TrEMBL record:
Keywords: Aminotransferase, Pyridoxal phosphate, Transferase. It comes from the Bacteria. Belongs to the class-III pyridoxal-phosphate-dependent aminotransferase family. PANTHER family: ALANINE--GLYOXYLATE AMINOTRANSFERASE 2-LIKE, PTHR45688. Gene3D superfamilies: Aspartate Aminotransferase, domain 1, Type I PLP-dependent aspartate aminotransferase-like (Major domain). GO terms for molecular function: pyridoxal phosphate binding; transaminase activity. Its cofactor is pyridoxal 5'-phosphate. The keyword Nucleotidyltransferase does not apply. This is Putative aminotransferase. The keyword Acyltransferase does not apply.
């Protein structure tokens, strides 16, 4: 079976626009005229949203949609404390980062304290793509290498250098000649007891291939929950051998925490902490400002010093006063509202609910993940583990019809990507599980 076109996984087909209400048809025509054809809309029937609050989005008719996907608003859509922080700071000062200002220093110190690892410094950008792009520049400067190792269906961003390290884009975006891919640490389709050893061997083989072609390894770059590959979180600790391998080759380990960080795993604040490894560089984005454009990285001071000795770096508005005010408010909310604990406890409740549904519906082949990042893999045959890609598309769109928003991931687009905001509660989990039960029963 050929894999689905990743440009169209859970995407609206403009050829079907005539089936939509006139209001949405008109808006889609305006959107295509103004924004062009490269953008994609979710769902066979695109969702028109006008406001949001907490874990809900609302359409123009006031209908609520339970949001189980958009981790950008990590502490909930339009959280009052974050909104107040943005508005208050915007009324006082917002300028670039080449003036002295307390805010960026206060936030950097607070962020670095979450690592519990001395000797790291922070650099700020506006997007996660920029953060990963900067991380590769740091790695190249420090190691003198250019070789990058990523997983086979990874997504790390949209800049030229990072898109070339993001095989999830498919054949339309060629990988760089300095990029090597390794299979993800898949315990479902491989021997669960061999995940760590297998992943280490694959990374070692990629290192050897780079060296054989005269390319010095610079970095192993992984999303620490392997979210685009299909969500692979277990067994905790499997990353250590691969990290040791890249270090032995003179390269660095870059932990991409754009999706896995900020308490999402429940058990830890950062995804890499689950594995007991120490990254050289940690990148982050999206959830940092709860939707405000704030991103960045934390890296060993010697790596940043090496880069700074060669390059006069600045990012005009990366870490501007309004953005860091939003970031500080997000950290306050996570701590004050106990959202890491909620991700751990409610995430476990939700995962157990999916496992119970797997006992009723043979279409569910595997349930995996941790905290508030869960992958539910759909297969048409449990013995052969054949991806049920078409059925997954139907499930995603049937849930949308029931006003529950979710998406799919993985190379075959057959894995439900469950990624709710951190305030998601048991009552919301019950709504999702009940709706999925009904949808599966109706297939």
């Amino acid at each position: 079976m050929n894999p689905p076109d990743q440009r169209m996984v859970n995407a609206f087909d403009p050829a079907t626009a005539d089936s939509l209400p006139q209001r949405e048809q008109a808006l889609i025509r305006r959107r295509q005229q103004a924004l062009g054809q490269a953008y994609r809309l979710f769902y066979q029937q695109p969702l028109h949203v006008v406001r949001a609050e907490g874990v809900y989005l609302y359409d123009p008719d006031g209908q609520p949609y339970l949001d189980v996907y958009n981790n950008v608003a990590s502490v909930g859509h339009c959280h009052p404390q974050v909104v107040d922080a943005i508005a208050s700071q915007a009324a006082v000062l917002n300028t670039h980062t080449r003036y002295l200002n307390d805010g960026i220093v206060d936030y950097a110190e607070r962020l670095l304290s979450t690592l519990a690892m001395p000797g790291y410094q922070a650099m700020f950008t506006c997007t996660g793509s920029e953060a990963n792009d900067l991380a590769l520049r740091l790695a190249g400067s420090f190691t003198g290498g250019q070789g990058v190792i990523v997983t086979a269906h990874a997504y790390h961003g949209v800049t030229s250098s990072i898109a070339a390290c993001s095989p999830a884009f498919g054949d339309g975006v060629p990988l760089g000649p300095n990029v090597r891919t390794v299979p993800p640490p898949d315990a479902y389709r491989g021997n669960a007891q061999d995940v760590a050893a297998r992943f280490t061997r694959d990374v070692q083989a990629a290192i050897a291939d780079l060296q054989r072609h005269g390319i010095r390894p610079a970095a192993l770059l992984v999303d620490t929950l392997f979210t685009s590959d299909g969500v692979f979180a277990e067994p905790a600790g499997f990353l250590q051998g691969a990290v040791d391998a890249i270090h032995a080759a003179g390269g660095l380990f870059i932990a991409d925490e754009v999706q896995a960080g900020f308490a999402r795993s429940g058990s830890h604040f950062w995804g890499f902490q689950r594995h007991g490894v120490v990254p050289d560089i940690i990148t982050m984005g999206k959830p940092m400002g709860n939707g405000h454009p704030l991103a960045g990285l934390m890296a060993r001071a010697d790596i940043i010093d090496c880069f700074g000795a060669q390059v006069r770096y600045f990012n005009t508005f990366g870490g501007n006063p309004v953005s860091v005010a939003a970031g500080m408010a997000v950290l306050d909310v996570i701590e004050r509202e106990g959202l890491q604990q909620n991700a751990r406890d409610t995430g476990a409740y939700l995962k157990a609910g999916f496992e119970a549904l797997a006992g009723k519906h043979a279409l569910i082949g595997d349930v995996r993940g941790t905290g508030f990042f869960i992958g539910v893999e759909m297969v048409s045959d449990r013995d052969s583990k054949t991806p049920a890609s078409a059925q997954t598309t139907r499930i995603v769109n049937a849930l949308r019809e029931r006003r529950i928003l979710i998406s799919a991931t993985g190379p075959a687009g057959n894995i439900l990507k469950v990624r709710p905001q951190l305030p998601f509660g048991r009552d919301h989990a019950d709504l999702l599980l009940g709706a999925l039960d009904a949808v599966l029963a109706g297939l």
